[in-house]
Amino acid sequence: MNCRTLRWFVVVLLAFCCTGATLQPVPSAQAVDTTSWFRLLSVDKSLAISLNGARLSLRGMRIGETVLVPFSVLHQAWGAVYAVSPAGSALTIGSRHAVWKGMSPTYRQGLLDFSWGVAPVLSGGQLYVPLRELMEPMGAFVGKRTSTDDIFVAYSTQWQKEPWLRQGQLAQLETVDLTHTNLKRVTTTRKVVAFTFDDNWDAVAAVRIAELFREYNGHCTFFVVGTNVRSHPEAVRTMARLGHDIGNHTLSHPAATAITDDTFVKQIQACEQVLNGMGLTSRPYFRFPYFADDSHLMGIVSDQGYLTVGSAWTIEDTGPNRSAGLSVATVRRFISPGVIFVGHANSMATYGAMKAVLPELAAQGYSFVSLSELLRGR
After folding, report:
1. Which of these, 287, 285, 248, lies nearest to 268 by C-alpha position?
2. pTM for the whole thing?
3. What's the pLDDT tens digit per position in 297-321?
4. Please, what is the Cα angle at 102 between 99 and 107, to 5 degrees?
5. What is the pLDDT of residues 95-115, one digit of tens each?
6. How far apart are CA 160 and CA 76, in angstroms?
7. Chain segment 156-192, per-residue pLDDT in tens
8. Alpha helix (H) ranges present in the chain?
9. For the chain, which domains are there?
10. How far, in Å, CA of 257 to CA of 345, rounded?
11. pLDDT for 13-58, tens place per residue?
12. What is the DSSP track for 157-209?
């Protein structure tokens, strides 16, 4: 008996002893956390499958109300590994394992049993796995778009180590109307205001702003530039950890009207990919650098799965005469329920303005909300 066989025998024996009655399949020794990237997997009504917006050649399967996808799709998305032993089957994603035997209607993850509804099916040489029933207990965000009935799964194996990376803005993928472009405010009688901050050139100021809003039990939204995310990943992690929304502001901040459509698409996708590598996403929010847009370009943004977000007012923090005082005066002048302000996390002057104006607005009864909270009516 070689060492590998002996190791397998010992692990199976331990599993048997721990369960006290029934052998549990053991995750394959090859199962590793192959990726921490965020992936968005969707299955439309025709059972076509897309991964991060790219259509795959494989298709899903529907049995009753249950949608199943080929195991190879889960491998491509999150490095899933499948193993079969005399004890049964094991499917591993990152450090989590689903184990079952034969056509069992349930599987075990850790110490808990979950229902498949429909057990995994072998068809055409492919193992098909129930998508929602597997991924929700894994910790994924699973939703259905109200406009199309597409099922989608948003997940990163990094969430297993840092659950706070599971962003609240993902819920907006279910309901956001991508045809409602250039969002500037929402009509409401509630005293809420959405402050948004572009660029993130000054990581120190951005973090101070993020922390300041949480002092008032509030949130804001940061539209980040991909190159700055690469340079200051911890600043973006802090934004996510504190519950703020993160939007897409392109990879390197070009004016969309000055580049080709193909280059514009690559700019959007590259910014998203930088965030994906951290287990994060910018979906579904996008803002044009310099507000250089037109209806054609907004259509491209919608095709990429994003909502174009504008603003009702800028807080005047980018011009040569910028100052905390000027920004505070601008907010005082234009504040109203449901308004979206845009500032820039590019200097401590913007932080100074927020430090001065937030307590004043809070005293007037205003709450500070992210875009997601604004849209869902917090």
Report:
1. 248
2. 0.89
3. 999 999 999 999 999 999 988 877 7
4. 30
5. 999 999 988 999 999 999 999
6. 18
7. 999 999 999 999 999 999 999 887 678 999 999 999 9
8. 3-19, 71-78, 131-138, 172-175, 203-215, 226-231, 233-241, 261-276, 295-303, 324-334, 348-363, 371-376
9. 23-160 (3.30.457.10), 170-376 (3.20.20.370)
10. 24
11. 333 333 333 333 344 444 444 568 999 999 999 999 999 999 999 9
12. GGGGT-GGGS-GGGGHHHH--TTS-SB-B---SS-EEEEEEEE---HHHHHHH
> Quick one: tokens of 34?
């192959």
Interior angle at CA 288, CA 282 and CA 293, nearest 5: 140
Alpha-carbon dihedral sign for residues 167, 168, 173, 176: negative
Enclosing H/E stretch for 105: none
Residue 237: C-alpha distances to residues 209, 252, 286 (Å): 14, 19, 19
State how beta strands 221-224 and 367-368 pair: unpaired
Q: In 304-347, which residue ranges form alpha helices assigned H by DSSP? A: 324-334
> Which token pair is 180?
């409602």
Residue in the structure block whose two tokens are 């193909």: 262
